Amino acid sequence: MSGRLKRAAIASAALLALAAASPSAMADVKIGFLGGFTGPIEGLTPPILKGAELAVANVNDQGGILDGEKIEMPSGDTTCTDATAASNAADRMVNSEQVTAIVGALCSGATISSANNAGIPGGVVMVSPASTSPAVTNLKDNDLVFRTTPSDAYQGEAMAKLLRKKGVDEIAITYVNNDYGKGFADALDTAFTEAGGTVTAKEAHEEGKADYRAELGSLAASGAPMLAVLAYESGSGQTIVRQAIESGDFTDFIGGDGMVGENLISAVGAGNLEGMIATRAGKPEIPGADVFAKLAEKAGVDPSATYAPQAYDAAFLLALAVEKNGSADREGLNKALREVASAPGEVILPGEWEKAKKLIAEGKDINYEGAGGPLDFDQNGDVPGVIVELVVKDGKFVEVGRID
Q1: DSSP characters for 33-59?
Q2: What are the CA-CA distances from residue 370 to residues 375, 383, 393 (Å)?
Q3: So which residues are the signal peptide here (predicted)?
Q4: Strands 346-348 and 366-368
Q5: pLDDT of residue 26
Q6: Which residue stretches of the chain have pLDDT < 50?
Q7: Which pLDDT score, from 0 to 100, does residue 251 have?
């Protein structure tokens, strides 16, 4: 080999060695998404994913993350109700996909299973846009599990307040027998009773049954004129509402956030549900909410879809935290997440990636004010929030306004 060829070969080998020593150089930064693509929230999951993907697109279209890398978002199906499926999906994200962080899961039980069996052992930050159970607050998570939606401890109080304001004195409660349903039912029961109302019956039901007529008969026998259904619009909640109407046991319903979806209306019939009320996390009257709505509409994403704004916030916040942390490493990401989500710092709104990236590079503090709220995490990773009332009108859930 000539001297010139030998020098070229040595230079080439050196470059290859350098590339091998830096496997993360210009590689995609992976932020996973865990959702219930099958099961009782299969109708709610796609719009939530679109909200998260919109945040990823905003980052990638504005120069990318870190040194120009793109964010990739692999997804996994938790089924919502199968703890084993949730754990397996999370394990694949953490140990096979090698994600830096995770948006999700969505159902509270899935988030708890995913965190305990994969996320926490792997040191992976998880930000759920939809897990509302108070049980999430009490996870021993090493400060790794956060959420961008308020707890059902708050939603239960808001629902009770709404019912009493409407002059409802008695309700019966049916709830899906999991972390979400039980936590929500307990919060509603306590708040409604303290507000002077009477819960005539509160009964759990199992997800996935074909017939709930026995449960409905027991609830109706309590004499309550209204049934609170704390379940899922593509699962037990849908079946219970349909069978209650068919049997004549109940005609007046109030649903929690898990019931707000098009699948419920299309399955049960718009005429049968006209006037049904519901509650869910809403958007406050802040600039971030309006900015997100415009970004979403431009991208063909429904800005009013249940938990789509909160999913955008979860993904955008994680991207900001990675940028603040200075690498795609998992270690230190939780600290960076808290820093970009809270004052002090210059306010960053949805879509303002270039602005945020520049400020971080200059060593300046930022404070993300999101689509769903200010997102100031407390010591448990929870956020304050807004709960809104919705009503079925002309074949769809229409937002009425904030519950104060």
Answers
A1: EEE-SSSTTTTTHHHHHHHHHHHHHHH
A2: 7, 12, 29
A3: 1-27
A4: parallel
A5: 57
A6: 1-25
A7: 95
Alpha-carbon distance 37 to 45, whole Å? 6
Contact between 333 and 341 under an 8 Å Cβ cutoff? The reply is no
Structure tokens at 359: 């400020």
Identify whether the C-beta of residue 336 lies closer than 8 Å to the C-beta of residue 321: yes
Q: What is the pLDDT of residues 59-99, one digit of tens each?
A: 999 999 999 999 999 999 999 999 999 999 999 999 999 99
Whether the Cβ atoms of residue 123 and residue 330 lie closer than 8 Å to each other: yes
Q: Which fold has domain 153-282+387-402?
A: Rossmann fold (3.40.50)
The residues, ordered by sequence, that sit 6+ positions from 189 with a Cβ below 8 Å of its Cβ are: 156, 173, 199, 202
> Which residue ranges make up each domain of the chain?
29-150+285-384, 153-282+387-402
The CATH T-level fold of domain 29-150+285-384 is Rossmann fold (3.40.50)
Q: If we measure between CA atoms, which residue out of 148, 244, 239, 228 comes closest to residue 192?
A: 228
For residue 296, which of 107, 130, 60, 48 has the smallest C-alpha distance?
48
pLDDT more than 70, % of the chain = 94
Secondary structure of residue 261 in the 3-state scheme: coil
Q: How far is CA 344 from the centre of its chain?
A: 26
Give the sheet arrangement for strand 198-205, strand by strand.
198-205, 170-176, 226-230, 252-255, 277-282, 386-393, 396-402
* Burial (0-12, 13-18, 19+ Cβ within 10 Å), 362: exposed
- What pTM does this model have? 0.89
Note the pLDDT of residue 338.
Answer: 98
Computed from CA positions of residues 90, 94, 96, 100, in that sequence, does the dihedral angle turn out positive or negative? positive
Nearest to 275 by CA among 166, 185, 202, 157: 166
pLDDT at 139: 96
